[in-house]
Amino acid sequence: MSLTAFVQQIDSGQFRASIAQPISLTAEGASRDEAISRLSKLAQHQLSQGEIVEIRWAGDNPWLKFAGIWKDHPDFDAYQADIAEYRRMVDSMDSP
Predict the structure, then answer these.
(1) How many Å separate Cα 10 from the centre of its chain?
(2) For residue 82, what pLDDT is reported?
(3) What is the model's pTM?
(4) Would you give the DSSP letter of residue 5?
(5) CA distance 2 to 20
(6) At 16, is the secondary structure helix, strand, or coil?
(7) Order of strands, edge to edge, in the sheet holding 6-11?
(8) Residue 15 · residue 35 · CB < 8 Å
(9) What span, in angstroms and rounded, lies between the C-alpha atoms of 15 and 36?
(10) Taking the CB of residue 1, how many other CB atoms lie within 10 A of it?
(11) Does residue 95 have a pLDDT over 80?
């Protein structure tokens, strides 16, 4: 199993490594590698103490009753256009 971790420097001498899936865990260390190593050991320990199971929802999706409620709203097309323009702006900032 491989996990994807987010690593960040939290101050001049500390690093934090975190994972959110399949369980939320965080570890800190004096270096990037130490934080990752601690997180890896913590994840191995935690995951060995239980099991991951899939839970299926037997009922109706509670969000379906909201699907499409804005389709006839007079501002919907303008809202979609604003989202598209913002996405283009963010994408252009990421481009070299």
Answers:
(1) 19
(2) 96
(3) 0.57
(4) -
(5) 13
(6) strand
(7) 6-11, 14-19, 25-29
(8) yes
(9) 9
(10) 7
(11) no
Distances (CA, A) of 16 to 5, 13, 37: 10, 10, 11
User: How many CB atoms lie under 10 A from the CB of residue 37?
Assistant: 14
CA 35 to chain centre: 19
| Helix, strand, coil share of the chain (percent; to 5) | 40, 20, 40
Give residues with Cβ within 8 angstroms of 3, minimum separation 6.
19, 21, 22, 43
pLDDT digits (tens, 9 = 90+) for 15-36: 999 999 889 999 999 999 999 9
Q: Are 7 and 16 in contact (CB under 8 A)?
A: yes
d(CA 43, CA 45): 5
Tokens of 56: 């299926």
Polymer length in residues for the chain: 96
pLDDT at 17 (0 to 100)? 97
